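User: Hi! I'm working on a homework problem where we have to compare a predicted structure to a textbook description. Could you give me the structure for the chain below?
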Amino acid sequence: MRPGAARPPWFFHQSAFTASLEHTRTALALYDRDRHRTVASLYGKNAGVTCHAWAAQALCLLGEEDAGVQRIEEALVLAERLEHPYSVASARSQAACVYQYRQQPEQALHWAEATVVLAADQGFGYRVATGTILRGWALTRLGRHQEGLAELRRGLAAYQETGAQMERPYYLALLAEALGEAGQPADGLTAIDEGLALIPPGRSFFYEAELHRLRGSLLQADDHADARHQAEAHVVRAFKVARCQQAHLLERRAAESLATIRQRRGTDLSNRGHS
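Assistant: Happy to help. Predicted structure tokens:
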């Protein structure tokens, strides 16, 4: 089970969502809950929970959001039945991610807080960090800007202390989005720059399209015509990256942002014509 279970997250982070999904299906076909119960003690978490959770995230970004929600529910139920604390914490954290992708802050907040409570009790520093970051994003989206930003920064610092790096561009995107919500677009652009710089040249990253889209959205706050032109260029790039990666959820989001930018530009030109 170890090789099959390890590949889905690797493929997912490289934005190979279909390959990630296929490997989870292959691994789950071999998975037996009773026979593989002890595997979690060797590798940290249960392989069945892991596969359901990565399948959920891949389905969500592929645009099959309802199927993604169903699969994360399966991961959560299985983890609870197995009574393996780290598998439960992991499933809860990934559930928060699924709802973050779907831009549903109430549900993301629920699972992020559930992650932090369990992880803090069990001493799972990595999951405390990821849960804190996701909690901060959700709070900001719910209008609690200062509290949310404080949580995001605290979570990012804790994440860095664990030595983890792979998901940092994703978490910096959440920080940038939160900064934009809080009316701090310049700081948001700094977070985007840091996130994009962490993606190795020639490599693909699962949230790359959203980093470009957020850059475009943040640039819209600038009234200069050049900044608005750059905003459109970044959102167009986001659309192309998402389409190339088959990240249909992010492709739709980029298309909506592009339509908003062009509508605003048309309105501005119309207003100038009447002034």
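For your comparison, note the following. Residues 248-273 form the longest helix (26 residues). Confidence is low (pLDDT under 50) at residues 1-6. Good luck with the assignment!
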